[in-house]
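Got a spare moment? Tell me how you read both lines of this record:
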Amino acid sequence: MTGSISSTLPPPHSALRLPDAPALVVGHAQAAIASPEGEVRLVDLPKAAALLRERPAILVHAPVTLRRLGLEALPAFDLLELFAFVRPARFCLPTPRGLARALDLPVPADLESEAGLLFRIALELLAELEEASGLRPPQLRRRRSIAAAMAAGGWRWGPAAMEAIEGVSPGGVSSPGDVASIHPASARAQSALAVWEDLPEWSEHAPEPPPGHLPVEPNEARQRLAQLLGEGAEARPQQADYASAVTAAFAPRERQGEPRFVLAEAGTGVGKTLGYIAPASLWAEKNDGTVWISTYTRNLQHQIDGELDRLYPDPAEKALKVVVRKGRENYLCLLNLEEAVRGLPTRPQDIVSLGLMARFAEATRDGDLVGGDFPGWLSDLIGRGRSLGLADRRGECVYSACPHYHRCYIERSIRRARRADIVIANHALVMIQAAIGPEERSLPLRYVFDEGHHLFDAADGTFASHLSGFETAELRRWILGAEGRGRSRARGLKRRIEDLVAGDNEALEALEAALEAASSLPGEGWHQRLAEKPRGATEAFLAKVRQQVYARDPDATNPYSLETDVLPMVEGLQEAGATLARALGTLELPLKTLMARLAARLDEEAEGLDTATRLRIEAMIRALKRRGTMETAGWRQMLEGLGSPCPPEFVEWFGVERIDGRDLDVGMYRHWLDPMVPFAQAVAEPAQGLLVTSATLTDGSGDIEADWRAAEARSGAVHLPMPAIRARVPSPFDYANQTRLFVVTDVRKDDLGLVASAYRELILAAGGGALGLFTAIQRLREVYRRLAPALERQGLQLLAQHVDPLDTATLVDIFRAEENASLLGTDAVRDGVDVPGRSLRLVVFDRVPWARPDILHRARRKAMGGKDYDDRLVRLRLKQAFGRLIRRADDHGVFVLLDPMMPSRLKGAFPEGVELKRVGLAEAVAETRGFLSLR
């Protein structure tokens, strides 16, 4: 099939010229190729692969294209690279249709029109470079120098970009900035990428005084909510009732250790975000204090940030009042960027990736690489090591010793948070700060925990102790820094601390002792040595652990992770544990000594220390505390208890983490039986007030009091002396009329061919707009393999987590934007997707989402209610999944569970009034088609 694309081409932009290359768009079953002369044709995938082997093509998202063609890395003109250069720190969907929307071009309807449009997209982007409207001369010079360096380094778009920037012919330039004179490994190329020199500096401010304790009255919260909604807004009495009820979390406490604790369940559609923003912002204003709003997902962090535009429509005011805070591992580290640029003489091939990162660093609001204004797809294009890997991922920050300290994105964010009214954080950051001490100088006094149903999971991860190969190797890198000739930029403890303890002989001796003791931790290549010839005390212990796991796990031949109980132990394991415990004690002692000597310096030089040095010392004390007490001391306690029963408040096991049959990690794991105990002690008790809120705090067992008691247990309220204040506001949605609920009784869930056929027929009946949920990644992949070509033949796009080389947030963004696309995923999309409108009108769950019966679950099940505990977890998961379906008053949707073994006792997970129908697949398909076709 061939056709013309001439009608899609724009009038010429000046004398801009495109590369002499075809355009290529690849689907699941066929591809479209457009020639520069205007011919477009559909071909099968082998022919498309052959073309790409012969010559580079213009395409969108090379990793996705190559994976669909079954090819390894090949050169291409990726339009996303050009977009990232022209519009740094700007968002677009990484598809031809997404680029068309971003550029306000007609959205193509099929593969052929998509392929034809790629030429126009390229010309539009190059035209933006040519126009350069709004840029100051220094910005123009920096942009030009980056483009020249990237072009000299082999960037495919480089010649066309340089031509657009300054009218240079693709064959070379004759100006002083001649691209041919720039070698990617030269000092000139490094200078071109030194964007940190142009960034503004932050300034220090006096410490903020403590906040007041004036309460927020219910009528005040209602008035503020009305202000947020604006005149003429539709009356939402449930939202006003919610805002009024949660004011109790902002009342002053009466006794130390007895915070005002409010548990508030708000059904979907209540509008709880604005409901709690109203009293939270009022409290901050009345008391000159800060309220921390914490979420589980980054997606919700940025949704809340968007909602606060209503309260602070002026961006300048909002920048002062609202801060999004994340852990250091989320932000671009300028020192890491500089060191990567300085490494170009040994790796000149990195210049294109680093050029795009330099462009991002110039334009970003806050340097956030995960969920901020960094396009998630960019790391897929240029590699995680040259993008996300430039964050501070190993606690290696040198703080005020860094030459970029006063331009640092992280430090700027921390200082803004100290003076903000609202800080939007995440559960993990809040808990870590509470455990080791905050970077903000003092712990928050008022918290709002949205997505409160995830508090238990967040606390479980934060307060656990993992004595594993990965964790111990990370500690070695934290102490010793980069070893050998690798590319690691890890900075060791000596580099970070040596100048702080100069002249202190006791501290210097402790530092040397720590460096020497770290040699007992796993070095590079430890994975391979465990099965052959372990080296050092840690590897010897882990080798014995691995031996026991493989000997005891009954499913050791499967490709998934393995685990076994600690007792009884194989011969030699207890002795290896004792040896490692002594080695860790030898390491722990000098780390504690360093911490003590730094604390002494803070005290002894309190009057003379400048602010930057004091803050740096405080940061090092926190880091040493985390490593020397929370980590090494915790590991040593686990090892010293080997051979004895585990303490009753903990659960222990040995495990081997695996992916596709390949060992990734080996270790001994200890979790709190109830992780809300340390949460209550570290986070809740020091606070004045906490609001824990969600649409799914209670699970719908049929016993309301039992549901609330379970919610109080999973939120930590039961561990506080004051009882929690309960509030529940029902959803305003008419679920009985807006939804249909089917349990399919004639599809065998162990036959993936039948499961894939069921998904296909249901998605076709809905015309797309489906979210397919799976309890196992392998099941998802197999269904996707069978499903994608069939749907494409019907003009329906299929996306899949764990299959498409795109991060989950980007997949969800594409799904949200494309009304007839469908998305397959696991837990992350079950809980974190907010897709209002017709883009999500069908949810299909492959089976009842029972908890994985591992050792940790076994212990909690025994302690927390047996079968009722299992049922509670499943109801909460089903409730979350069903909650994805209806997000607005005019939404309609169908929920299908492909599991005939669904017990009737679980139906409380679904809203009251929704009839659960047990039907065959044919009837479910017919009713789905009929119900959704009327909407």
